[in-house]
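We now fix the convention by which a protein and its fold are recorded. Here is one such record, which you should read through line by line:

>
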Amino acid sequence: MHYITNKSGYEYLPHIADARFIAYGSTLEQVFEQAALAMFNVIIDTTVLKPEKNVEISIKSTGLDDLLYDYLSELLYLFEVETIIFGHFTVNSINMSNNGYTLVGHASGETTDPKKHCFDCEVKAVTYHQLSIEKKESGYCAHVIVDT
């Protein structure tokens, strides 16, 4: 399988029951942004969303894979509880310390409106199944499966 890591993006891979994708970018921050974008594009076409509501995101986790899981899970939680459908993601920093990793960023989108938004698929949860982040020659890639 060929991964393009000199620019950011994502691609969907076949999976029997769930949504599976690879996110890539030249930095960890780009990979996390692209993973969030890929996850929300499973739910809705994010190109139609305007950045009307902004939410600050701050996550701490013991490992890098855990950080990605926690970041995507937090965004999904905010979508379900705060009823904001996100389409724009900025990860300002991912820092490593003795206690693990810290992510700081924000996500923006619109208040969910069933009359306005046409949802393609429900994402129930992020999974740890085959979750991984790899360093490549010119960047990073992350493999994610979400339960649909």
Q: What stands out?
A: The radius of gyration is 14 Å. The chain is about 25% helix and 45% strand.
